[in-house]
Design a protein that fits this description.
By secondary structure, the protein is of the alpha+beta class. It has 1 helix and 3 strands. The chain is elongated, with a radius of gyration of 13 Å. The two termini are about 15 Å apart.
Length: about 60
Amino acid sequence: MNERFRYRIIDFTPDLTSAPGRKLEDLLNEAGADGWELVTALRDSRMEPTRLFLKKREP
């Protein structure tokens, strides 16, 4: 059986006036509740947002 996946990319820019770790945790928990799994996260420079790569199995 071949597994099929869907992919999603999110550019995350933290709000510096609040707790950035908490916002990211909330975003990932919401995505996880919908079946998305974080594969990796990359940031090219401090001036760029963090790019989150997620996947989930297709039904």
